[in-house]
Structure formats: C-alpha cells, structure tokens
Amino acid sequence: MATKRGKLIVFEGLDRSGKSTQCARLVEYLRQNGSTDVKHLRFPDRTTPIGQMINNYLAGSSQQEDHVIHLLFSANRWELAQTIESAIAGGTTVVVDRYYYSGCVYSAAKQNPSLDLAWCRHPEIGLPRPDICLFLDINAEDAANRGGYGNERYEKQDMQDRVRGLFGEMRIHEDEKDDIVVIDAGKDIETVEKCVQEAVRVAIERVDSGDRP
Ligand code: ADP
Ligand code: FDM
Ligand code: MG
C-alpha cells in the first residue's frame, strides 16, 4: 500500500488564546500516538532574513508601510511552502502555529482603507491548504487576563477586538469554512487539548478515507 500523505494542521486565534501551548501538546501527542513523523512550524518564522525584518517590525525597532509588512508576512510563508508540500507528500504531518488566517486578519484590523480582507487574501492564494484549522476561540478580555499583553506591536485591546471580529469573517468565507473548527479556548488546558485531539482525529480520518484528497 502507498504511504499515507502527511496532514497540514494549523492553529489560529488571538494572542494568548493558547496556540503555542496546544501546538506543542499536539505535536507531542502525535509523535507518541501517530504513525507518522511530525514537523512543528510557526509563523512568523523569525529565523530567516525576512523573518528578522518582521521581528524588528513587531518589536517596534523598525517601521514598514502596511502593505509592505503584509507582503513580508506572506513571503515568510511562501519561503516554506515547498518544504511543507514536500513534507506532506513524503508522509510527514506538519503542525503550524499561525498561518494565513492571522496574515489576513491582523493586516485588515489596521483599518487601512486599501487593505481590506479580500486584498489581504490575494498573496496567500496557492499556499498549501490546511486539512484542518483549529481556531482557538476566546474573547480579548479573557485572553488579556492570562498575564497581560507584552510589548509587541499588535498586543493592544482594541486591535485584538477587531482581530477577533475579522476571524469571524474568515470563518464564513465559502472557500474556508469547512477547513475551520472552532474550539472553546476558555476552558482549562487539558479540556482544550482533548477537543483538539478529537477534531484532529476526525480530520485525519477524513483525509485517509479519501473524503478529502
Ligand atoms: P498564544 O500562543 O496563543 O499566544 P500561549 O499558549 O502562549 O498562547 O498561552 C498564553 C498564556 O496562557 C500562557 O501563560 C499559558 O500557560 C496560558 N494558557 C494557555 N492555555 C490556557 C488555558 N486553557 N487556560 C488558562 N491558561 C492558559
Ligand atoms: N501576525 C502573524 C501578522 O500580523 N501576520 C501574520 O501573517 C502572522 C503569521 O504577528 F501579533 C502577527 C500576529 C501576532 C504576531 O505573534 C506574532 P506570535 O506571538 O509570534 O504568534
Ligand atoms: Mg504563541
């Protein structure tokens, strides 16, 4: 029998919704219980030259025009597109902390009139499509109560409120609505973890049974 292809699993949500926590737990779980290799990625990938420009922008030590930084975030995903595709084709599952959903909603939340959600989506078209996007849903106030925000550029309550609203709009987009599973991220870490595992199990089965090529 041919080797099963790997799956592309994405975590999304507001800052402090628990993405990095759940991403690490899922990677560990799949490594122990799954039958495939697992690659753990995060965007932005701050290790590349483009990623370092993004890091400086987020830290506030450099400025970028809104469209330019949007395209740099996108280019930072395209840098790894081939790596992701090859991994999946070779049977490795890829788990990603943020993807193009963040790319679109954070840029659109800036309320720049020539940078709406539709414009933001364009440079992302053609990137490997996730088999599942786990949207860790929490309101901005509860997220902020998990230790307060840091000093990065977008870690402000009004920005986070707009980001959450825009994540809602991404969810009803015809092309994407079946990819996204909403998880109540306000529950305790173990409860969220179980919900994630169950949603991932269903998504993996759907791919392996041929329901989703
Ligand atoms: P993100 O990557 O989405 O910004 P993190 O995983 O870094 O979020 O979590 C942010 C903070 O909240 C961390 O201190 C983490 O330990 C804590 N945390 C994560 N998940 C939960 C949860 N379900 N309940 C309470 N605190 C959580
Ligand atoms: N972010 C992240 C964007 O604005 N666009 C993107 O494409 C991506 C992937 O960068 F404020 C924002 C979202 C967040 C910051 O934070 C990255 P973390 O803590 O590295 O996830
Ligand atoms: Mg994180």
CATH topology: Rossmann fold
Looking at the chains present, what oligomeric state does this protein adopt?
single chain
CATH class: Alpha Beta
Rounded mean pLDDT is 94
Percentage of β-strand residues: 5-15%
Q: What summary fits the major beta sheet?
A: 5 strands, parallel
User: So, CATH architecture?
Assistant: 3-Layer(aba) Sandwich
Kindly give the count of domains: 1
- The secondary-structure element order is EHEHHEHHEHHEH
Key terms:
alpha/beta, Rossmann fold, 5 strands, binds magnesium ion, binds adenosine-5'-diphosphate, binds 3'-fluoro-3'-deoxythymidine monophosphate, dTMP kinase activity, nucleotide biosynthesis, 213 residues, kinase
Descriptive overview:
The chain has 213 residues and is an alpha/beta fold. The protein has one domain (8-208): P-loop containing nucleotide triphosphate hydrolases (Rossmann fold), CATH 3.40.50.300. Helices cover 49% and strands 13% of the residues. It has 8 helices and 5 strands; from the N terminus they run E-H-E-H-H-E-H-H-E-H-H-E-H. It has helices at residues 19-33, 49-59, 66-89, 100-108, 117-121, 140-144, 157-171, 189-208, and strands spanning 8-13, 38-42, 93-97, 132-137, 180-184. It has a 5-stranded parallel beta sheet with strand order 2-3-1-4-5, sandwiched between helices. Helix 1 (19-33) crosses helix 8 and helix 2 packs across helix 3 (66-89). The longest helix is centred in the middle third of the chain and has 24 residues, at 66-89. It is globular and about 50 Å long. The two termini are 16 Å apart. The model has no long low-confidence stretch (mean pLDDT 94). Residues 15, 43-44, 58, 73, 98, 102-103, 106, 152, 154 line the site of 3'-fluoro-3'-deoxythymidine monophosphate.
